[in-house]
Each structure stands twice: as C-alpha cells, then as structure tokens.
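During the no-cost extension, the postdoctoral fellow (Dr. R.K.) reprocessed legacy sequence entries with the updated structure-token encoder. One reprocessed record is reproduced below for audit purposes.
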Amino acid sequence: MTTVHRANDPLLQPYRLKHLTLKNRIMSTAHEPNYAEDGMPKDRYRLYHLEKAKGGIALTMTAGSAIVSRDSAPAFGNLHAYRDEIVPWLKRLADDCHEQGAAVMIQLTHLGRRTNWNKADWLPVLAPSPVREPAHRAIPKEMEDWDIDRIVADYADAAERMKAAGLDGFEFECYGHLMDQFWSPATNRRDDAFGGSLDNRLRFTFRILDAVRARVGPGFIVGARLVADEDWDMGLSRAEGLAICQKLVATGQIDFLNVIRGHIEHDGPLSRVIPVTGMRSAPHLDFAGEVRQHTKFPVFHAARINDVATARHAVAEGKLDMVGMTRAHIADPHIVKKIMAGREHEIRPCVGATYCLDRIYEGHEALCIHNPATGREATMPQAIVRASGGHRHIVIAGAGPAGLEAARVSAERGHRVTLIEAAGRPGGQVALATRAKRRGELQGIVDWRMDRLEKLGVEARFNTLADGALVASLAPDVVIVATGGAPGAAIAIPGQELAVSSWDILSGDVKPGEEVLLFDDNGAHPGMAAAEFLVDAGAKLELVTPERFFAPEMGGLNLVPYMQKLHTAGTRITTMLRVSGLKRVGNRIAATLWSPYTEKDAGERLVDQVVIEQATLPNADLYMELKERSSNGGAVDYGALIAGAPQTVRGNPHGRFQLFRIGDAVASRNIPAAIYAAARLCKDL
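Re-encoded structure tokens follow.
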C-alpha cells in the first residue's frame, strides 16, 4: 500500500467517541486472558495490553469481564472490580497504554448463572430465575429484592473505581451474563416487576444505568456489549434485540453498542458466536451493520474478523464504527503498525485454531497456537532483535512447526541458516492436519514462516535426508534437530500389527474400511481428525477411548465441529475402556475391550479395520548419531533457557558444534509447544 493509499485507508481514520478521539478504527474487544494475579491486572496482564498499544491499536478493552460483586465467582480468572486494590494496577496499565496513544476501557459484569458455586467464597450462584446453564452446571438461586439492590450498588461502586483508575470508559457485559439473563425469556421466568414484559425485563438494567451515571457523571464513556438477537427459539428474538438497542440509546446514558448475535450456554451455540477454523468468517458482520443502520448510533463488533481486508470492508461500507480484531491481535499485536508501514503481508495470520479461547474455557491462560510471545511479553519478544555478537551457521533438520520457527528466529537474529527437510514440502504434522479440508487454514502457520524464511535468505533443502555426514559437511556452529515424531506404540497390545495408525488414514496411505473401530489413546486432534476423515469416507465408526472425559486434550470450541460430524454419522462413542488385544477372524478383526475399573474384559468388537492413535514417538536417530560429536552432548541448561540466557554447556572439548533437539523429536506434544521451544531456544543464540 502506498503512502497515498494509507492516508485514505478507512481503518486508519480517527473516530470521535464523545470527547475521546480514537486514532484509528481497530480495537481489541474485552476478553479474559487469565493473566491476573489474585484478581489484579499486574505485570503480565499490563504487558499483554501494552504490546497491542505499542503495535498501534486505537482501543484495547480489558477484562472479559471484571466482576462487580463477590458472589460473582471468577469462572474465567476474572479481574476483581469489587476491590479498591484494583485501581492502582489499572491506572498503571492505562497510563502505559496512553503513552503509546491507545485508549483503554474495561468490561464490567456480574456473571449471574455463568459460574459455579464451588469457587472463590462458595456463595450461592444468582440468576433472575433458577435456570441451570449447561456450561457451568450450577442451579442458581432466584434473586431477591435485596440481591438486586446490592448488585445495583456494586455496579456503581465498580464504575467509580474505573473512573478513578483513569480509564477512558467501560462497557457492561450483556451477553450471557446477569444483565441479559434478565432480558432473555430463556432465563427470566419471573412474574414480578422484573419479569414478563420487555420493559420489566429491562428494569434491572435501567436501575444500574441510573446508579452508575449518578456516580461517574454524564461525561464518562459507558457502553454495552450486548446480544441483539439470541438466534434461539427460547431466547431474545431479533425484533426484541433491536428494541432493546433502541431503548438503551433512548436513555441517553449509553455511548456505544458493541453488538453480538447468538447464545452461549453450551459449546455448540458458543462456536457460532465465536467461530473456529473451517467456520464462516465474520458471520455476524452484516447483522451488526443492520443494528447500526437501525439505531443510527456508534456500533462496535467482533466475531472472527481476522484479516485486514474484512476489517477494512466493515468500516468502509459503514457497517461498523470500530472493528474488533481480538484473536487476530493475539496472533499479531502489531497489526496496525504493519498496516501503517505498508507491510500488511508481514502480519502473522490468525488461523482460527482458537487454542487461545479453548485454554481460557479450560481454566488455563490464553496462548496463541503460533505466536509464543503473546502472554509472555516479559520473557519473549514479539519482534526478534539481531544478535550483538558474531553470527553463526545454524543447521536445522526438519521443517515442521519447530524447525520452521527455529529457522525464522535464528535468521532474524542475523545467523546463517540451512534448513534440511526429508519431505518435498514443509509443514510436518501441520501438513497432515490440513488434509482435513475444514482445517486448511492451519497452513497459514507454515506459509507465514516460509515467506519470512525466503525474505531472510534462509537456504532450504527439501527432499534431502539429514544424516551425520551431511551435517558435518556443512561445518555448523549449532545443529538443531527438529525431525518430529512418528506414530508410536507407547502401550503395545497383542495383535497390534493388525491395526493401522491415524497417520495412515489421514495421509491417504490406507483406505478407510467400511466398519471401523478407532482406539484413541491420546485424546487430542489427531484421533478426532482421523475419526472425521473416516466418517466423511462413509465408514460406520465406533470410537473407543480410555478417558473418563471425552477428548480431554481438546477444548470445547474445537470439539464442536468434530461432534457435529460424528453425531450426524451416528458414531458410537465408548469411554472408559481400552483395546487390550486384536486377532484375525476370517477377513475381519476382533478387538477385545478391557475395563481398567473391573480389570476384566468388557466385550469384543468384530470390524473390518482397527485404527490406533497413540500420539508419536521421537524420530531421534540423527540426534543420537550427533550427540558424541557435539560440544554439549545435547544437554540443555534449563535454568538458562527459562531465564532467557544463552546456552553455554560445553562437556566435550572436542565437539565442533552445539546440539539441541526440539518439538516432537523430544516428546509428543503439540504445535504451540513445538513453536515455543524453538523460539525460546533460538532467541538467545
């Protein structure tokens, strides 16, 4: 993009919101990355938002959401907006972001039924009516008059704290939480002044608005992130949602609407609100545009707007005033800076893997599938700096995620890099994963790195098997073995030679059978991907797992499209049993099932094909061949690694190079683990 084009770029135009001028049209909407410490946004939390501010974003919305009351137990690592101690922490975060020209807001909520009673202070879960939310399973207490009075006051107190912290404003969360639980017919079954008619269902909200405005005054910016159509026969209709928008605007107490569509009480509908890879991009953008046209009011929106072209379209066509690129900023917090510099092609793409949100919903911190620095800003740089010392020759064997990242980071450091790959193309297990058409976007993990390697002048040799002689001939200073793994038999069973692996199925090396038993002893994407592949091929499938919880290594959002396929195909799912043996019976295979609870056989299945998924075992031959020739014998100083210091182990004075192995060449893990291992090692070479 030329300078003239950038000057006219809709995304780079300022936007006036009340008294506040936002320097461009890009924001990160509220989400809870679970970086808080004791409910406070301390350094890790602050640095995460500061990085986006450094990257040029106009508005970063913190918390998802900050809880206003003690009885709103923090289900997602929420910030504690009910405590005075939060003010100085938020003030430091806001001050730091303001120095970079970014505005800072926060999202406030009472979770209502969207939490559990057995967290925090073990207080009763509250809701307008005692309607259980499937996602969190608590049966809430119906709110009494004194509960309503107390929580209205809590909102006002929290709002005053946010103003004292120097934030630019805040938004109410009305999207599956307490406020809109009053709005929705699905969750409000009251017959008092807070139930029945739409005005009655809005009464709690209007009381909060009055109390908040009385406390923060008319000048402070207050918005609402609200569901304007629950897309649910039991819930708010589009007509009611638009009416709510109009009524909120008519109060004169709301400054913007941050619109969402759908309902979130279960993983299935939640995935339509927050789509994952293989699902439609920006599915609710047109609807948000309709709300803006209907209300003639500032409208913000985010829902899988993960590329600059779509964001630009949203603003240029008048659908949105501010466009949320939230997961996209987890993948690359420097999006705006790169747009302004005419380097859009260098933006690290969000591939829709939603590893970030699935981790949050499983109680872990948000991490990106292929940006290891996000959430680790204190120890991992978003932009790699060149090494100050002498440049070295680094030879990397393997062009999967670990090897590609090692090559990229090493080259960014200024080292000479030779990348060797036995296959004809890069990607490793990513190439296998993208055999499932629905997950094709994961190819972005590979393509972005290959583009960077080309621009950095990395020598890449494909269709080349790395062995000791080849490595020695290259006279390396450092050798990194990233040769990955291969389907393993960590737990061998009698007759296992009769089975095929999930890799055999996904690669197309083995044709799916007609009646298949898949034994998934891993509980992650590979087994589920093989299952999807099998049912797509028309197989009658039974999926057997020893796990108590089905697919435990996969988050709920990613599980949804798999389960849609499996349920549609009538797949039989059997949990808490193992396959203990296989034997040939005519032209079929008999699989014996065994219970770890009774320690006895639990039946037999007669099928055409048995597929086994047991993760991988390392391809470590090259590493073992090179160990004695290396200066460090492959040893890693973990203390130095964690501290961000160079590796200085030198146990062999005759060794001519340092040797390291990373990714599945060490042990079976996953893509983000492989990429993090590579970046953490190579950033200090």
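The mean pLDDT is 96. The chain is about 35% helix and 20% strand. The remaining legacy entries will be reprocessed before the final report is submitted.
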